[in-house]
Each structure stands twice: as C-alpha cells, then as structure tokens.
Amino acid sequence: MNLSTYVVPLITGVASGLILYLSAAGMNLMISGLGVINFGQGAFFVLGAGVCLIVGKATGSLLQGMAAGTLVTFFLGGLLELSLRPVVGKKMELTLMITMGIAYILDDIFEIVWGSSVQTLAIPVWLRGLVTVGSFQIPKYYLFIIGAALLIGLAFWIVFEKTRLGMRFRAIISNRDMVEALGVNVHLSYMMMFMIGIALSGFAGALNLPISGFTATGAMGAFGAIVPILVIGGLGNIQGTLPSAVFIGVLSAVAALFLPKLYNLVPTVVMVLVIMIKPQGLFTRKER
Amino acid sequence: MKKLNLTATVLTVAAVGLCLVLGVFCGINTTLLMSRIVIMALFALSLNIQTGYAGLGNLGHALYFGLGSYGVLIFVSKFGQPLYLAIPATILILTLVSAAVGFLMLQSDDKMSFLFLSFGVCLLVYTAFAKWAWVGNKTGLTFNVRPQALNDPRNCFMLILLVTAVCAALMYLLTKTPFTAALKGSRENETRMVFLGVNIKRLRLVAYVISSFFGVIAGVLYAIMNNGAYITSIDTSMALEAMMMCLIGGGATFLGPVLGAVIVTLVRNFLPTVTNLDSVIFGVMVILCCYFLPDGITAPNGRPAALVRRVAGRLRKSGSDSEKVR
Question: Would you kindly state where each structural domain of chain A is located, as residue ranges?
C-alpha cells in the first residue's frame, strides 16, 4: 500500500516525460538537421492541443481530435519550412527570430480563437478509470499516453534508422553540403524534417490536453519545459532525447513528492548541474 | 569612413536632444514612456556586447535587468539600507553572480547550448521569484526607494538619461579597445583566434560580465523609475524583446540596438492600447524585418544606411555647390 504512493507518481512522471520527449525529439530533429532553433515549438504544442480541443468537442472523439491536431501541425510544419527557406544557413539568429515572430502571432491567435480561460476535453469512457496491476492502481489514461508515445517514438526511430527517408535525414545531419552536392532533393527532406518535427509537437500537445487542459498562454511554459530535456540529452543528439526525457519526468515526479513547492525548478537545476559535469550533454556518446 | 562618423555623431546628438525635449516638455505620460525607452536602450546596448560583438545569442539577459530591480528593492525595503548603499551593493553582488553564472554557462563551447542555457537560467529564476512570497510572488515589490528630488518624473528622467549617456559612452569606448577587436575575432573565426593564442572562454566570460554589469544598471534605473520591482522585468519575454531590439536595430553599428529599443518599446507599449492584435502585428514586423533587413536597420551595407548615405551625400553636394556659387 505504501509502495503505491511512489509507483503511481513514477508512472505519471514517465508519462509526462514521454509527452515532452515527443516535442523535444521534433525540435532536436530540426536543430541537428538544419541548425534551426524552432522557438515556436511550444506554440505548436499549444496549437496541437487547441485543434484537438475543437475537433474533439465537435466529433466527441479524442482520437479524431488528436489526429486533427497532428495533421494541422504537420502541414503547418511544411509552411514553416517554406517561410524559413530564404534564411536557413545564413545566421542562426534569423531563423530564431522568424520562429519567435511566428510564436508571437500564434499567441494572439490562441487568445482570440480559444479565449483565455483554461479549457479541457474529457477523457473518453474507455480510457477512464484505473487499471489494477498487482497491488497498484494506475490511471488508464497515463498508460495510454505511455503506450502512444512509445509507439510514436518507435515509429520515429524506425523511420529514422531503417528507411530511405531516415537515411537521408542522417546523411543531412552528418554533412548537409555533401548531400546537396550529391544531387539529393534536400529541400524535400528539409520539409519532411520540419513536418515531422512539428507534428510531433502537435501530437504531444494533443496527448497532454486531457491532463493539463488548453491554456492560451502556455507556449512559453511548454518551450521552457523542452529546453532542459534538450540540453541534458545533448543538442543535436537524437538518441539522447528519450533517456533524458524519462529521466527528467521521473525526477520531477519524485521531486513533486518531496519538494511540492520547488518541483518545477528541478529540471533547470539539473540542467545546470549537467552542464557543469558534462557540457556536451549527459547522454551523448563520445565521438569516434 | 570619417564622413559617415560625422553623420552618426550629428544623428546621436540630435537624438539625445530630441529625447531631452520630449522627455522634459511634453507631459507626464511622454516622460514616463521616454524614461522606459531610454532604459531599454541601455539594456539593449548592454545585451549587444554579447549578441553583436561576441556573437553569443542570449535569451536570458532579462535575468540581470530583473535582478537589478529586485536587488535595489530588497536592499532598501527588506534590509533597510539607504539607496546610495543599495545601488553599489546590488551592482557589485550581481556582477559577481554574473561571473559565476557566466562561468557555468560557457562550459560548453557550443553557442547553441549557451543560448538554451541562458534561457533556462532566466526561466528558472523567474519561476523561483514567482513562487517566492518574500519577494512578493507575481506582484513583485513596491517601496518608496527614491529620494525626494526624484519624485518629479522629469528629474527622474534626466537622471536616467544622464546615467544612460555615461554608460553608453563607456560602452562606446569599450568598442574601440583591443578587447572588442578580439571579441569580434572570436565571433568571426573562433579557430583562428585560438591559434593566435586567445583564451576564448575567458574572453567571452569577460564580455558576459561586462554586459551583465550594464544590464544590472538598467535594472536599477528601472527600479528607481517605478519605485518597484516587478516579475515582468525578469520574464523571458522581456529577454526576447531585448534580443529583438538588438537584431532589429542591427548589432553591427554601435547605436543600432538603441534604434531597435525605440521601435520595439513603442510598438509593445503603444499597439496594445489600439488593437488586441498587437502580438500579431509585432510578429509580422519581426518576420518582415528578417526577410528584408537581415542585418538590422542600421547595418552599414543595408538599404536604410544606403539611403542615409545618399541623402547625406546630396546635402553635402548641394552645400558645396552653394559655396561655389558664393
């Protein structure tokens, strides 16, 4: 009985870590592929939740809402790539500024379309309630999150490691100019990178909707939550994002038990500590 | 080159004069707005030492601005110290803090991780202050810190303008030193500077500390102007705006960030009173600026600078023509 007070927060911690993993992995893809820091990643996280809210309310189905949120952000990712095309590769600050501008624009749109109150979507009946595993009672929805996030993460990994598209991604990450010189249509690959990267964030936002609800001003907070995961996992190190996200999720959950007032400072503090010990990221392998 | 400097000098003097006139003779609201603009100009100039000269993007410079404000308020209202002790103490302590923080943040050579770290640290302190009842949670601290003479906003404005002018002059002198030359070198070609025997980490750390020092001064001025320290001064969106000021104005020229500060402060303070689409307009403005003025408005090779040069050239020409006639 006493053990379950620890196990359940652990599960929720893993779940929230995995949600952030999706968003951070998308961002890391864009950073390592194109050197673009997408400041709007938090805004697209909120946008995914917002679209999911509207569609989910209209159709009464959370899954359809999630699909809609993911699709909308997927196509917006393509648009974002188009808008960044003139400045990519010139100065890092320019891409940062354009994505910031987009984040500003989205901020107002959220306020106007969805209003400033916190809204949430009910969890569908088949995901409500608790599952009893042994002597622990775990909310079904958290298990659903873990399953869905791991599935998407697995699909992402398969695409990245096993398909031709993924091969191109990896080639672009290791040497962009060379790939371009070999005659590969890199712009198509860039666009796919952005679409996948941003759709991952939108999907993460939609997954998060029934837990935290939709807040119009949540973009900065979402971005702030991704940053420690990225830095701890290592910037431009796609494999490092998953362990770092789970690590941060669990750590935050444990911290929430013992330091209920300070737990949302924990990821950043850990980030600073990690930088002191291993500046290139905790989960970065040594380059051979 | 010298002629352009002449234009710049004339423009600077004219701008300071205009500031003084606007700030002193045009009503309380203008005075307050001008005070804010001048403080922001100092803040943007201080950030430009990092983003412009050192080439280190920093998304958390608001940390020092906000802490500067809070420092003064804490020393005066919590510890009961007089203002003339509180200000040097705040500046000294925060400069030392910035040395420690900068040392940590510059551990990694990667500029991108510096960017993220600066953002993260700023967000960390913001979150901590927003939850800390001793510093007034999300409302911040208010206390009558300024002496009697500064209660008139116009006097306060003149003090702010004076301090900013002195700080700006110091920063301008700094840009003429070998230190800044080395800093620019590290921005343009890091490897080469290492080969030349420059300790890049130390160089950047010194730049970071100097930049933070002036950022703290801007924060202190803001505290004196408002008689308060607010959580919005430490917010990351404040830091983003400072970054925008530097990039919109252009980091290549010394006064670029000042122009950026004027534009951004006006837009961010004026637009919300007219429309509720202010962020959309601001965002579109930023994006357009990136496309058409990628090096900022004052970039020496950009379109506006060419325009100014042409106008100045024509004026000079007509001037010399009339001299000939005479």
Answer: 4-218
- Measured CA to CA, the distance from residue B284 to residue B277 in angstroms comes to 11
Distance CA A268, CA A248 (A): 10
CA A213, CA A123: separation in Å to the nearest integer?
Answer: 11
- A97 vs B244: CB contact, 8 Å cut-off? yes
Closest to A114 measured CA to CA, from A68, A199, A54: A54
Q: Angle at which helices A241-258 and A266-277 pack, to 10 degrees?
A: 130
**Element at B141 (helix H, strand E):** strand B141-142
The SS3 of residue B271 is: helix
CA distance to partner chain B, nearest, from residue A273 (Å): 9
Three-state SS at B294: coil
In order along its 326 residues, chain B shows pLDDT tens digits of 445 577 777 877 887 888 778 777 777 888 888 889 999 999 999 999 998 888 888 888 999 999 999 999 998 888 888 888 889 999 999 999 999 999 988 887 778 888 888 888 888 888 888 888 888 778 888 888 788 877 888 888 888 999 999 999 999 999 889 998 888 888 888 888 888 888 888 999 999 999 999 999 999 999 988 888 888 888 888 888 898 888 888 877 888 888 899 989 988 888 888 888 888 998 999 898 888 888 888 777 777 778 877 887 888 777 666 555 54
Q: Is the dihedral of CA B101, B112, B208, B198 positive or negative?
A: positive
Q: Which residue of A has its CA nearest to B272?
A: A108
Q: Do A102 and B240 touch (CB under 8 A)?
A: no
Tokens of A201: 């964030």
**What distance lies between CA A89 and its chain's CA centroid?**
24
DSSP string, A73-120: HHHHHHHHHHHHTTTTTT-HHHHHHHHHHHHHHHHHHHHHHH-SS-B-
Task: Map tokens 């969106």 to a residue.
Answer: B237
* Phi and psi angles of residue A87, each rounded to the nearest 5 degrees, phi first: -110, -10
Mutate to test the interface with A, among B59, B113, B245, B293 (most CBs of A within 10 A): B113
Q: How far is CA B203 from the centre of its chain?
A: 20
- Residue whose token pair is 């890391």: A28
Chain A interface test: which of B287, B288, B293 (most A C-beta within 10 Å): B287
Q: Are the C-beta atoms of A246 and A16 separated by less than 8 Å?
A: no
Residue bearing tokens 């009173």: B273
For residue A273, give the chain B residue with the closest CA: B104
Contacts of B105 in chain A (CB under 8 A): 275
